[in-house]
From TrEMBL:
Key word Phosphoprotein present: no
KW Membrane (keyword) present: no
Domain SH3: 42-114
Record-linked InterPro entries: OTOR, SH3-like_dom_sf, SH3_domain
Alphabetical keyword list: SH3 domain, Signal
Gene name per UniProt: LOC115810309
GO terms (BP aspect): cartilage condensation
The protein's name: Otoraplin-like
Signal peptide annotation: 1-23
Length: 132
């Protein structure tokens, strides 16, 4: 019994190590971001997708026209860079995507409701742009 428990724990730990081994660091999109709080755990606003957007890699989320998105942070672009926000989609039709947080171009959405007018500016970290 003890041997099978140890084997289970070993397999469980190895599985987690392998998952993290496949992750890749990708260049930072910005050095600063605006959030509703210091942990970026509350939504700043709600937005509606103006058109479809197909994610280019695992940092981004797909958007479908008309879909609602909770916005959690807004990247402060380096001069000349695009403006990206991070959020999570919300829609009955796309329930398989709900809860996935990723970046999307801000010009693909229209902010419909602002939850937090006062935002906090904090630095981004490499983990903000980690691709797993």
């Amino acid at each position: 019994m003890a041997n099978s428990r140890c084997l289970f724990i070993l397999i469980f730990c190895l599985g987690h190590l392998c998952q993290h081994g496949d992750a890749a660091r990708i260049e930072k999109l910005a050095n600063r971001k605006l959030c509703a709080d210091k942990d970026c755990s509350y939504a700043i606003s709600m937005a509606r997708a103006l058109e479809d957007y197909t994610a280019s890699d695992c940092r981004y989320i797909n958007l479908k026209r008309g879909q609602m998105i909770y916005v959690y942070s807004k990247l402060k672009p380096v001069e000349g860079a695009g403006v990206f926000w991070s959020g999570s989609v919300y829609s009955d039709r796309y329930v398989d995507q709900m809860g996935i947080i990723g970046y999307f171009p801000s010009n693909y959405v229209n902010e419909t409701h602002i939850f937090q007018k006062d935002t906090v500016e904090i630095p981004t970290t490499e983990m903000d742009f980690y691709c797993a």
